[in-house]
Amino acid sequence: MKTIVFYGSPARQGQTKDLLDVLLAELEGEIKFVDCYHADIAPCKDCRYCFTKRGCAIKDGMQELYDDIDCCDAVVIATPMHFGIMSAPMFSVFTRLQSYWSNRNIRHNNADRPNPKYGALLVTTGGKWVNMELLIQGVSEFAFDHMEAECIGAVFAYQTDTNPAADNDKAKEKARYLGCRLSELCRGKT
Questions:
Q1: Which of 62, 65, 89, 125 is placed for a possible disulfide with 81 were both Cys, Cβ 3.0 to 4.6 Å?
Q2: CA-to-CA separations, 133 to 77, 118, 128, in angstroms, rounded
Q3: Domain 2-189 falls in which CATH fold?
Q4: Phi/psi at 16 (nearest 5 deg)?
Q5: What is the distance between the alpha carbons of residues 128 and 174, in angstroms, rounded to a whole number?
Q6: Angle at 38 (CA atoms; ends 162, 86), nearest 5 degrees
Q7: Cα(149)–Cα(74) distance, rounded to whole angstroms?
Q8: Residue 168 has what DSSP assignment?
């Protein structure tokens, strides 16, 4: 089993990492960790290279990542909520998934689609308000869809300003469940 973790927090050891560690403890196999804040990956420039060719005209860290996305079994998106969505560096990385959208919808090339996989979303947020999940879940669904990942669930650690993720038993239990479920589903694929 191979899992790619997209990590969107500027803090290498913070609320989001505390929650992610709970999920990772349950995952089997190889884990590729993509630190979106510190990755050498530029945002999409809408050059439309991917309208006619596989991949992307920008030659940076995303080139290797495309190969990993193509063949992995699971994808985890772990991020703090910033202005209602994932962090800006993570969003920039996800704009580069445009290549997959173009492959499917413009070039109509089913042979170059990534392998089907499963996904999970982990979000930490300092506050809590009505329907705050809608925007980030919608944007995350775009990313999962472009990577051919079926999202099996999301966990939100709310009010981390006063209730640290490390102490949020409900969020940790759901993260633990999602890690176990990803491992179980991916075992069933082989």
A1: 125
A2: 14, 20, 9
A3: Rossmann fold (3.40.50)
A4: -65, -40
A5: 18
A6: 45
A7: 7
A8: -
Locate tokens 């403890």: which residue?
25
Please give the pLDDT value at position 62.
96
Question: CB under 8 Å, gap of 24 or more: what pairs does 58-62 form?
Answer: 58/96, 62/93, 62/96
pLDDT of 120-155, one tens digit each? Answer: 999 999 999 889 999 999 999 999 999 999 999 999
The set of residues, in sequence order, having a beta carbon less than 8 Å from that of 94 and lying 6+ positions away, is 6, 86, 139, 142, 143, 146
Phi and psi, residue 128, nearest 5°: -160, 125
Angle at the Cα of 99 from the Cα atoms of 101 and 186, rounded to 5 degrees: 75
CA distance linking residue 98 with residue 69, whole number of Å? 13
Q: Name the E strands within the chain.
A: 2-7, 30-35, 74-80, 117-124, 149-157
Coil vs helix vs strand at 13: coil
Burial of 61 (0-12, 13-18, 19+ CB in 10 A): middle
| pLDDT at 112 (0 to 100) | 85
- What token pair was written down for 185? 């589903």
**Could you state, in order of their start, the residue ranges of all structural domains in the chain?**
2-189
